[in-house]
């Protein structure tokens, strides 16, 4: 029996990982005949932006450019993880969207494995750790009926929802993985040269991806060691590792196009009542709250870090401080917050002994159906949605159209919705396509719509091509006026789409 129990965590890790990547599996499995699944398992504009960084890995190791605006921005380290993964997979001939999916699957497995290692480090017994892993995997909001159908309480970017907490975004998965590794190393209390080097490097990597989480772990661990009157070296080394990346991002996000992302985030503040927050955070959170007094009877570093990290991030989330700092309050909560709450709840349940078994069964019965509904919702795709599935002929045409451009600075004027998809699958620049990464996005959207609909006069069309430094046009075959413009040279086309080369005036 003891040997069998040793395999239980492995089963949980595999099941939780499968649940997280199920949208990818469902998307590929349900691909209609004659179409290509693009791998879009979260917000399309963001997905294709991240995918464009994978595509740029073919020509770069770490640096990426914004390919969603005609302005030639300098390369930056934003998205370096995606570029690096894209490079690695490109060396063996794997296309960007496949590389994205494989990266998601591998990183998901590593995240849940790291979660188990961290939970095992904090927990006193294997039984407690296994309970904590189950709770972390099932952590979800309270269920409810919405429009007569089973659903759950929610708010924008609710970390209690598994596909938000873990999700299918490679660089976000790496962020979660690094935060788990950092927490585990910080609470080990076994100083060594190797540990200090690892902490410094993890601090640098985490800060380059998510400076807020780097700062929270640094400050809270510092606070814990200060209370215990222990050496602050772990926190200091970890904090020093992230200083330069954090400063780099702070300076970079003061300039376009990233300043647009920063301005947008500053206004993304959910208005939540305490009841709404409790309902959307779920039953495991409530069990954890009631378990904190008993858990604090042991004042080890791991217990104090677990309790303080979960409580302080929740307090910050509910406070006006994030808004005053110009960041969204959802950024202060993380998968690490949920893991800490799950560990606390598990310890509380184990302390209840026989009653704890009943509590665990009730939680499982309550959360498993909600989890299944959540996976189903995130695995729903529309065959007619071009962001999900493209006709194979159109997909191959877009790849072919990009191959006619040999200059990485070339700009394509692409009609909607292909303007969003094009940079992601080709690594080529589109005149517009992302509301937050395109400069003057609304103006460009309006001018482009008029250009392709025939509502724009020839002089205005020429002005758009000139002012936008357009090198190629991808349009419908029936787009008005294009065949009569002397500066355009027909390159190739299909029954529906064509590509033109814009000649220099």
Description:
By secondary structure, the chain is α/β, with parallel strands linked by helices. It folds into 2 domains: 2-30 and 95-378, no CATH class; 389-502, no CATH class. 60% of the residues lie in helices and 7% in strands. It has helices spanning 2-6, 8-29, 44-56, 80-90, 96-122, 126-138, 162-165, 170-186, 193-209, 211-227, 233-252, 258-266, 274-281, 283-295, 301-318, 321-325, 335-351, 354-378, 392-403, 418-426, 441-453, 458-467, and strands spanning 35-37, 143-146, 149-152, 389-391, 411-414, 429-430, 472-476, 488-493, 497-502. It is elongated, with a radius of gyration of 25 Å.
Spell out the blueprint of helices and strands:
Elements: H1 2-6, H2 8-29, E1 35-37, H3 44-56, H4 80-90, H5 96-122, H6 126-138, E2 143-146, E3 149-152, H7 162-165, H8 170-186, H9 193-209, H10 211-227, H11 233-252, H12 258-266, H13 274-281, H14 283-295, H15 301-318, H16 321-325, H17 335-351, H18 354-378, E4 389-391, H19 392-403, E5 411-414, H20 418-426, E6 429-430, H21 441-453, H22 458-467, E7 472-476, E8 488-493, E9 497-502
């Amino acid at each position: 029996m003891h040997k069998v129990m040793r395999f239980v965590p492995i089963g949980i890790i595999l099941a939780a990982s499968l649940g997280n990547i199920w949208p990818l599996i469902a998307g590929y499995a349900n691909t209609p005949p004659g179409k290509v699944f693009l791998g879009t398992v979260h917000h399309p504009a963001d997905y294709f932006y991240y995918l464009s960084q994978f595509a740029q890995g073919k020509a770069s190791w770490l640096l990426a450019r914004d390919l969603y605006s005609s302005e030639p921005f300098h390369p930056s380290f934003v998205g370096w993880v995606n570029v690096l993964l894209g490079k690695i997979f490109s060396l063996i001939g794997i296309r960007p969207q496949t590389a994205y999916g494989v990266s998601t699957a591998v990183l998901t497995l590593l995240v849940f494995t790291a979660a188990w290692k961290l939970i095992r480090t904090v927990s006193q017994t294997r039984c407690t750790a296994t309970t904590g892993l189950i709770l972390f995997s099932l952590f979800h909001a309270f269920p409810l009926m919405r429009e007569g159908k089973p659903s759950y309480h929610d708010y924008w970017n609710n970390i209690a929802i598994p596909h938000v907490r873990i999700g299918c975004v490679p660089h976000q998965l790496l962020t979660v993985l690094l935060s788990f590794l950092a927490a585990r190393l910080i609470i080990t209390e076994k100083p060594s040269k190797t540990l200090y080097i690892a902490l410094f490097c993890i601090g640098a990597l985490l800060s380059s991806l998510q400076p807020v989480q780097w700062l929270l772990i640094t400050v809270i661990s510092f606070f814990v060691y200060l209370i215990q009157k222990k050496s602050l070296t772990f926190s200091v080394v970890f904090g020093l590792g992230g200083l330069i990346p954090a400063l780099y991002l702070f300076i970079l996000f003061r300039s376009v196009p990233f300043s647009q992302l920063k301005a947008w985030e500053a206004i993304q503040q959910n208005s939540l009542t305490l009841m709404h927050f409790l309902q959307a955070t779920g039953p495991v959170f409530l069990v954890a709250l009631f378990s904190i007094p008993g858990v604090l009877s042991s004042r080890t570093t791991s217990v104090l870090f677990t309790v303080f990290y979960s409580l302080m991030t929740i307090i910050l989330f509910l406070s006006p401080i994030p808004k005053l700092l110009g960041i969204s309050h959802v950024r202060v909560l993380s998968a690490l917050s949920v893991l800490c709450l799950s560990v606390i709840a598990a310890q509380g349940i184990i302390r209840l002994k026989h009653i704890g078994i009943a509590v665990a069964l009730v939680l499982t019965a309550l959360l498993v159906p909600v989890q299944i509904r959540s996976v189903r919702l995130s695995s729903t795709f529309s065959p007619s949605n071009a962001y999900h599935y493209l006709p194979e002929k159109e997909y191959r045409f877009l790849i072919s159209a990009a191959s006619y451009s040999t200059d990485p600075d070339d700009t394509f004027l692409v009609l909607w919705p292909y303007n969003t998809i094009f940079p992601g699958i080709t690594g080529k620049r589109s005149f517009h396509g992302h509301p937050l990464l395109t400069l003057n996005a609304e103006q460009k959207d309006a001018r482009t719509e008029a250009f392709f609909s025939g509502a724009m006069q020839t002089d205005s069309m020429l002005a758009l091509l000139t002012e936008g430094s357009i090198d190629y046009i991808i349009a419908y075959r029936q787009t008005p006026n294009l065949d009569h413009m002397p500066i355009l040279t027909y390159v190739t086309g299909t029954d529906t789409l064509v590509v033109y080369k814009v000649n220099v005036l």
